[in-house]
Amino acid sequence: MFYLLSELSDGGDFFNLFRYITFRAGGAFFTALIFGFMFGQPLINLLRRKQGKGQPIREDGPENHILAKAGTPTMGGVLILGAILVSTLLWARWDNGYVWIVLFVTYSFGLIGFADDYQKVSKQHHNGISGKIRLGFGFIIAAIAGVWVMSMQNADLSGYLAFPILKDTLLNLGFLYIPFVMIVIVGTANAVNFTDGLDGLAIMPVMIAAGSFGIISYLVGRVDFTEYLDVHYVAGTGELTIFVAALIGGGLGFLWYNAPPAAVFMGDTGSLALGGALGAIAIATKHEIVLSIIGGLFVVELLSVVIQVLYYKKTGKRIFLMAPIHHHFEKAGWGESQIVIRFWIVSLILALVGLATLKIR
Predict the structure, then answer these.
(1) Which residues, including other chains, have CB under 8 Å from residue 53's CB and lie 6 or more apart?
(2) pLDDT at 216
(3) Beta-sheet strands, E only, within 141-244
(4) How far apart (Å, rounded) are the C-alpha atoms in residues 196 and 340?
């Protein structure tokens, strides 16, 4: 909405700043951050009153969680989603289709997560809605997003998969592109969901990955940078930088209350929504493979669960002490803060590796 103020500019005054993505991204960041600080504590107080016993804690999980985390309210992702929505609508261009695609995916997955959290809290059991139902709705949302993205991109990019490092290399997936999009978005959403198991563990890697894709979105959306870097130009994706800035601002506002010991958990409301957002941005910018690098921590968390389940069904034994893998390290004697900070470090390293693929051609 603030972009409209640029219409008041004669080309050299203050209002001209609203034409620049970087300026509006800064505005979105601080708007979301202030939103988080303003409404964080009131939301936590409301969730405590409504939820009573808070998020149910798994009895088969680490023993210390039953005592240390009991009574902590969930659904804190509402704070992040509120900050993102307000900031994006205020600072992004409303005529940009990619912004609406990412918002659609984010809040659709947020609704799935909210329904799941509500079931857990109301029944006081860690099992929410059926996994098949969650996946079913997730795949439908992702399929819609895939068709939407294809309709917006040029014929030389629509339905194609780009490869990092390999210059000008595209693979035409044809009718397989939509299933591919479904796997990327739903997989990322659930990978972030599995990562969200310790105080502050998921939100920082999400912000690191989002920040990386904010850079990618800005570069891919500019002809001059894509020509210099030899990456594919996707017109309009630069505006996603506004969304990413809002996500980081809202994420920091949430982390203020989620830092150990957490006063609130983001719940599936936040983790599914933020994971879906990362997947949607990767699809829009044609950097799906790079997402697996930048979001490598999420990939490992997801794979640890898949491997554990498949191996146990086949042999009756477990590879990890507990899955997802962050609980394995807890069982092995690592402290919660050790795991969280070390996983943050790994996320940062992977993000830098992913960004390096922009220049290595």
Answers:
(1) 70, 71, 124
(2) 97
(3) 160-162, 170-172
(4) 11
Provide the residue ranges of all domains of the chain, joining segments of one domain with +: 21-356
Give the percent of the chain with pLDDT over 70.
91
Task: State what percent of residues in the chain have pLDDT above 90.
Answer: 79
The torsion angles phi and psi of 294, rounded to 5 degrees, stand at: -60, -40
pLDDT digits (tens, 9 = 90+) for 263-318: 999 999 999 999 999 999 999 999 999 999 999 999 999 999 999 999 999 999 99
Q: What's the CA gap between 119 and 125, in Å, rounded? A: 8
Q: What is the average pLDDT score of the chain?
A: 91
Contact residues for 310 (Cβ-Cβ < 8 A; gap 6+):
none
CA neighbor of 205 nearest in space, from 71, 314, 351, 105 = 351
Please choose, from the candidates 285, 295, 99, the residue with its C-alpha nearest in 3D space to the C-alpha of residue 190.
295
| Gap between the Cα atoms of 361 and 359, Å rounded | 6
Would the CA dihedral through 282, 287, 292, 294 be positive or negative? Answer: negative
How many whole angstroms separate alpha carbon 109 and alpha carbon 132? 14
At 155, phi and psi to the nearest 5? Answer: -60, -30
Phi, psi of 62 (to 5 degrees): -55, 135
Angle between helices 203-220 and 21-51 (to 10 degrees): 150
Q: Cite the DSSP H helix spans in 196-324.
A: 203-220, 223-229, 240-258, 267-284, 288-294, 296-315
Task: Answer yes or no: is pLDDT of 66 > 50.
Answer: no
Residue 358 gets the label, from left (phi > 0), alpha (psi -120 to 50) or beta, of alpha
- Which pair of structure tokens corresponds to residue 82? 């509120």
Cα 289–chain centre separation: 16
* Burial status of residue 67 (CB atoms within 10 A of its CB: 0-12, 13-18, 19 or more): exposed
H-assigned helices in the chain: 21-51, 63-68, 77-91, 97-123, 131-152, 177-195, 203-220, 223-229, 240-258, 267-284, 288-294, 296-315, 325-331, 336-356
SS3 164: coil
Mean pLDDT of 323-331: 93
Q: Which pair of tokens denotes residue 148? A: 């939407």
CA proximity to 128, closest of 82, 75, 206: 75
Query: What digits encode the pLDDT tens for the residues 71-92?
Result: 789 999 999 999 999 999 999 9
